[in-house]
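Hi X.,

You mentioned you wanted examples for the new student's onboarding notes, showing what a folding record looks like when two proteins sit in one file. Here is a clean example. The first protein comes first, with its sequence line followed by its structure tokens.
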Amino acid sequence: MSDALSLKPEAYLVKPDTLTDRPAMRVSPLPQTPRPHAEISVDRLDEIEELKQRIAELEAENAEQAMRLRTKRTKLLEFEAMVETAPVGILIADASGRITYGNHLVEEMLRHPIHFSENVDDYHEWTAFHGDGSKVDVQEYPLARVLAGETYSELDVQYLRGDDTQFWMRIIGRPVFDADDNRIGAAVALIDIDRERKLQDTQQILIRELNHRVKNAFSVVKSIVNQSLRYSSVEQHVRRTLDHRLDAYAAAHGRLMDTKWQSGDFKQVVTDIVDHVAPGRVSYSGPPHEINSGEALAFSMAFYELATNAIKYGALSVPEGRVTLTWDLQDIDEVPSLIVNWTELNGPAVVRSERKGFGSFITNRAIALETGGTVEMDFKEAGVSWTCIVPIEEE
């Protein structure tokens, strides 16, 4: 037995069958599985670690993207909530002009479903008219104008509702930008101003009626003055002076009537008085500036008094005399101010009167009280110099 175990596997032989006398058979050895080398196992472990690390990175990226997506969704919901609670109708269009969004107030105001127009040419679905009754062209709508490149557009229209009624609506448009400051569309706000326009129409009727009554009142006052002075010992030039003063005051009132009694253009106040009292003899210049109704009346009366005095006693009483009237906007002690200068040149020698009459009151105390400003009058040898500084109230 020990001799049999000492034999090599490939030497094993099956002895001949003594019963069949079949020849002996050689048995082949079983195949042997080779062992992996140590360096191959290390490489594979490194690959596995790299894959694990990449998977972890992808999972972190996915989590970050999911967080950004949730943030964007939250912001979108907040934006929609804000738009839906806004007290105006809002429409949004993309860069091609296709209307992509509208809040619920659009349908409530217009009384028809939102027209999701595909482009600007389809804006004819929205029917509106100008104040003169002409139809608003599609290119006139603020949404179309902003999409064409404007940064701001505003238009008041009479809009035809879905129930065939009309109302006044203000449309305000602005562009929409992306994170890279590229235009990606436009948005418009639709504001119901029907009540406001009706109040304005009523106001205009009242102003016209008031204007008519004021003119009648001035006419009555002039008539009373003339009748009272006709048989008195008052000199004729006094009567003319009263007439002219009333005319100047009436002209100032008429100008304010034309501007809704809110404000008046300073240059217009100058031309209404100076060109009427001393046509062509006073040169004036200054920047555009709006003054309130009280200031307009005060300056009108002051310019009338300055001009008539210049004609009677000052520079305009001689052919070579001249007057310059200038105004400017400057900061005085850090306060925005209107500075007005009336300067007479080449006139007769100035004699300062000790008598303080109505004209002196108008050109000094009255205008200072009305405007809250200061007045300086200098009786120079070359002519009278009058300066008024009025602080400008910020709106």
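Then the second protein repeats the pattern, sequence line and then tokens:
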Amino acid sequence: MGRGDHNGVGWAERLTPEDRRAISPLFWTHINPYGRFYLDMDARLDLTAA
């Protein structure tokens, strides 16, 4: 178990820019900027036209 000092606001001031870049995916993983792609795994791709 931890000491519980992550509950205070003081931890945010101790973060370096590298720390902020490392944890930012944790807050933004629910956003998909590319939309949804639905894959039909039963259909084959027509690669002869390419």
